[in-house]
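quick one
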Amino acid sequence: MIPSPFQAGILLAAIGLPAATQEEPTEVPDVRMIVIAHRGASGYLPEHTIPAYAVAHGMGADYIEPDLVLTSDGHFICLHDIHLEATTNVEEVFPDRAREDGRWYAADFTVEEIGRLEAAERLDGRFPKGVGRFRVPTFAEMIELVQGMNQSSGRNVGIYPELKAPAWHREEGLPMEEALLDVLDRYGYREPGARVFVQSFEPESLKRLRALGSDLPQVLLMAEVEQYQRFLSPEGIAGIADFADGIGPAKTMIRRQRDLVVWAREAGLLVHPYTFRADQVPSPYTTVIEEIRSHLFVFGVNGVFTDHPDLARGAIDWY
Ligand code: G3P
Ligand code: CA
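structure w/ calcium ion:
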């Protein structure tokens, strides 16, 4: 029996080999059609956990995405929200540590305290809650996993960190940009050709990174909300090129306004839309593979954020 892409990815991850090998070009920044494992292989394992990142590597992702927030003692941890309740058991472990608004903030906990929590998948119908034991990793642990698997597999998988709520963190006395550059430098991500994209929904944060001297590849994320309307014109998109190398729009923005990809290309910007999910396929597509192929080969985007990196890998390599 021929294994499915998922089975093959799991199998190869288990034995430490990549699901797909390919030449790694040195262009700056990475302009291939790329598979970005969104929160790791989060369609299969709890988001932002070491197993989810390891399986993403084994499934042939080109880049793996950690969302980042800071702890009270200044460590980056891999977490989507500034709050802890949605994906951890913080309410059980630290019942008295909510703020007045009834929320548990990662920024109120030390990295040692975060290490006592168990992590779980956010979305229903995926990896069951309460099964297995998963932790909230630090960014350093995530990088060490990726670099270790790069060494064992001979591949050069990149990282695609997102700074979550940098303006909020700064108000809390936890500036993220300086701390991010420190960590990236410590692990060898220094030059424009480094296998990294730094992403944020906040243009000011990306500008701050440039002001701090970073020339690492950067991507401005955009959502379908009012604050990004000013970018939705040829001139608006072109302005992003002053501080970023690409845009990461919600995929619905591209379907609504296909010119977005053309304007970005004309401005020299890459386009990496989010998020492609096998269990949330929008009409008129019948499979996520069809949806991904349409975005890559018809709309002309340069990569996709996906919870199912094996399927995206297949959509690109087996077309
Ligand atoms: O970073 C791309 C995409 O992940 C943005 O949305 O909310 O999943 O971080 P979110
Ligand atoms: Ca993200």
